[in-house]
Design goal:
- The protein is of the alpha/beta class and 160 residues long.
- The protein has one domain: Rossmann fold (3-Layer(aba) Sandwich).
- Helices cover 32% and strands 21% of the residues.
């Protein structure tokens, strides 16, 4: 995902469920710098879905850090088995989505940053990019060869 002049790698994983999960999913999760928890706002059981994801992550001994633990503190993320999280609601066009979004914000809005998005309508996508970048707590490092101008087009992204 391009954000300004930095490339962020997103890994689209299969849904987490108790019925079947790919065996490699827990390891991919452990290596993540941040999590984007995507919930379907058109699903009447949206709270159950979030709880299921939380339960499965705990079974994997992986924890989603609270918002207060993530901003400006890489120490909390250095511990393997934890990552910062954003809860993103999708399918904002459905009739039930407004009520479900209100429920998600009520139950999880103080726990993690939340954002309702729609790829089809382009709703809050730029805000999502900014939130993900901020959540990663990275800085851009521009390189410069001796005697030459600094290359300001392709920086390295590094932990703060």
């Amino acid at each position: 995902m391009p954000f300004e002049n930095v490339q962020l790698q997103l890994v689209d994983m299969p849904p987490i469920s108790h019925e079947y999960m790919e065996p490699w999913m827990s390891q991919i999760t452990r290596n993540a710098d941040a999590m984007l928890l995507v919930v379907d706002l058109g699903d009447p059981a949206v709270l159950d879905a979030v709880e299921l994801i939380s339960d499965v992550l705990q079974e994997w001994k992986f924890y989603l850090l609270l918002a207060a633990d993530t901003r400006g503190s890489r120490d909390a993320r250095r511990w393997r088995g934890a990552a910062a999280c954003i809860a993103a609601g999708q399918q904002v066009g459905y009739a039930a989505s407004k009520d479900n979004w209100d429920i998600i914000q009520e139950f999880y809005g103080t726990r993690w940053p939340t954002l309702a998005v729609s790829a089809m309508q382009g709703h809050h996508l730029e805000a999502l990019h900014r939130e993900l970048y901020a959540l990663l707590d990275i800085v851009r490092v521009y390189t410069k060869a001796p005697g030459k101008k600094a290359g300001l087009t392709a920086p390295f992204a590094m932990p703060r």
